[in-house]
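The protein record quoted in full:

***
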Amino acid sequence: MTKRKIAIVIQRYGAEVNGGAEMLARWLAERLLHLADVHVLTTCAIDYRTWEDAYPPGESELNGVRLHRFPVDAVRDWRRAQRQTGRLLQQPHSLFDEIAWVKEQGPYSTPLLDSIRSAHARYDAFIFVTYLYAPTFFGLPLVSDKAILVPNAHDEPFLYLPAFRPLFHLPRAIIYNTEPERLLVSRVMGNDAVPQIEAGVGINVPDQLSAARFRAQYGLADDFLLYVGRVDQAKNVPELLDYFLRFRAAQGADAPPLKLVFIGRAHLDLPDHPDIIPLGFLESEADKFDAIQAASVLVMPSIYESLSLVSMEAWLMETPVLVNGRSAVLKHQCRQSNGGLYYHSYDEFAGALRILLADPELRARLGRQGRRFVNQRYNWEVVLAKYQAVFETLFPMPARPARD
């Protein structure tokens, strides 16, 4: 049977790429192989700060998905880009300034955009993942009649820039991760006329996991909190460090041992403290899941999230979460799942943490409830059925001629 040919467009892609949107795109591409011939159009970049070419350009394959990588036009100066962003958000500016900012933010790749334009007839649909970056902003309008947008939007200043408004009216369909994301975009963009659904993404769990193996490997015998993701100011890590160190100081010298373990590439300096353990980026997914399963609590301090994959990974490991309640999505999912607690201030953080650490049965119950929530809402069978419905409705396959 002839399969649809689908192109997924994403700013960076690969097993070494550490980012929620990029992981969503990779898992989606691999699972959609059951429904379509899947190709990925992306850049050669790994580092989101510079977009410097790291992979060779050209065609390759990863887990059955055909990759087409294109070089970026120019490396980004991160400090200069931060200053430009500050000026854009704080000073009067024109629509042209916003468009120039998107191009400068990147990753801008003329060969990638040329490929999208020339590939219009070769693909039945294009799925653009993440609204914020140049490949989607400049690429989606080139193939809007075949485009699906997975925006990964959250309540951040960039979403309110007028330059992005047409982007949310152009695609044939928009697929959101959560209800709060859909409601936010509807309020900001007024795009209810565009067909849209909530699908999210499933979670890939490795086989043969062992929390004991992780604890033994890193000498973690006692309770520990776990953070997984970019160790970055944009993820609100400095506030987490402040809250954790204040909590430890308030406990006193006789308090039970407690560590804060970080997994992910560090883009800021972590304090030299015996209770803070940076492990860097773990190449093995099994090692990451071992860590999540071993953790007493997974903490997610980020304010800007459209869907926290690591929270869902924690729930599948029956590990409770403690999330920042200033993120509407994280708060909503905590309340829907009954899989964790949330906070808005240091006092709430400390209070919630004391409750969780003092009651192992509560942690276990929250973890079980979280697992049930993910299995019901974010399993691959449900997610792929929703994508299949979008494909069949918007991009039907031509009927085969009847036989005599």
Notes: The first strand starts at residue 4 and ends at 9.
